[in-house]
Amino acid sequence: MMMRSIALGAAMLFSAAASPAWADSVSMFCGASEYELCAKAAAGFKEKTGNEVKITKMPALLDDAIPIYQQLLAAQSTDADVLFIDVIWIGMLQRNMLDLKPLVPAEEVSQHFQSTIDAATTQDGRLVALPWYMDTGLMYYRKDLLEKYGKQPPKTWDELTETAKFIQDKERAAGSPDLWGFTWQGKSYEGLTCDAIEWIASGGGGTIIEPDGKVTINNPEAAKALTRAKGWVKTISPEGVLGYDEETSRAVFEAGNAVFHRNWPYVWGTSQADGSKVAGKVGMMALPVGADGQKSSGCLGPMYLGISKYTAKPELATELLRYLVGPEVQKMRAIEGAYNPTQKSLYSDKEVLAKLPFLADAQAAFDGSVARPSGYTGSSYNRVSQAFYRAVHEILADGADVDKTLADLAGRLERLKESR
């Protein structure tokens, strides 16, 4: 089939020596940063069922997967069985996904956080995906450097700015010229939407478009948050941060060249792995707030698995999906990759908590997370997010006037809303 030629990165077939005569194969998509964990889960499925799993690695930049999915689904390709889905894609892809309610027992569905199930349920009541892991933005920091200089983990963004600059300057003077105070995701892409909405929401500036459809981005709190972030570039953050995504910024931190680093929960695992120069030196906390008394607002980003309605193997695809989102695989991924489970029972699992002690308080952190406005905007979300992150990038990189840029952005979003 011609869709097989679409460039998606390395694809691999995991197989044992000899399969039963009745064995079949099923395909799944997997995020680039978790490929090895997908391989281990696929091997477990093969061992349990005798069925092979073809794993296709997605692009490192998830935005690049959207047109690939759109091509596959528009062509009604049977090459795609189990899809790896960002929460913000659900509205866009829902018409091409199987309803899982008739396929997955209700008691299995109820084992996940209700918020994740609600986000994957369409307005007509279809459940089009099941959650694979919880994600929210977090702050990592060099606890050894904070201790060295008698600094506490900062509670506000202003405190972070001050602490980052202080330690950066002290360490450079002591012979570490490559050290920066803070790395984050400043590239003009979806990751910048996540970072910027955290800065704005944690300062009382809202979430771009509220659940009732009101465009709120043009406000003084949003302007203050973006002005602060603009001031980080070339002071506590390298100019190159304007091209950083998750992996690029993580590499700088794990090379020992940043004091603070904003990223997702998986970095807890990678920062402790062999090859990381900061293993054993990393602390983690909720993101700072705009001012005392305000609420930490890490961007909520559950990732899901769903089944293409064009699959030729719905039963086998369902069996794989149930296995992958079940407690056995989620526990393995939590322990080995620091992926926050969506299975509620695992938040009291002793082995999980021994590896990820921060999970004991994670449920409260998830309650404080801020969602991107994909619920209201649905299939128009990509256009809304693109308009937002491009405007933010202009402010950060080009010195665009903050107030004028936000006013222009609000007008653009109002026109998008009318066009819906």
Distance between the termini: 35 Å
Mean pLDDT: 90
Cα gyration radius (Å):
22 Å
Which spans have pLDDT < 50 for at least 5 consecutive residues? Answer: 1-21
Second-tier CATH architecture of the largest domain: 3-Layer(aba) Sandwich
Tally of alpha and pi helices: 18
What characterizes the major β-sheet? 4 strands, mixed
Number of domains: 2
Helical fraction equals 40-55%
Quaternary assembly: single chain
What is the general shape? globular
What does this structure look like?
- Its main location: periplasm.
- Residues 1-23 form the signal peptide.
- InterPro entries: Bact_solute-bd_prot1 (IPR050490), SBP (IPR006059).
- It is found in: Periplasm.
- The protein folds into 2 domains: 2-128 and 302-368, D-Maltodextrin-Binding Protein, domain 2; 138-299 and 373-419, Periplasmic binding protein-like II (D-Maltodextrin-Binding Protein, domain 2).
- It contains 18 helices and 10 strands.
- It has helices at residues 35-49, 65-74, 90-93, 106-109, 114-119, 143-148, 157-173, 190-201, 220-232, 246-254, 266-271, 314-325, 327-337, 350-355, 362-368, 374-377, 381-398, 402-419, and strands spanning 11-14, 25-30, 52-57, 82-86, 130-133, 138-142, 180-183, 258-263, 282-285, 303-307.
- The strands form 3 sheets. The protein has a 4-stranded mixed sheet with strand order 7-8-6-9, sandwiched between helices.
- Strand 2 (25-30), helix 1 (35-49) and strand 3 form a beta-alpha-beta unit.
- Helix 8 (190-201) crosses helix 9, helix 8 (190-201) crosses helix 17 (381-398) and helix 9 crosses helix 17.
- The protein is globular and about 65 Å long.
- It starts with 10 loop residues before the first strand and ends with a helix.
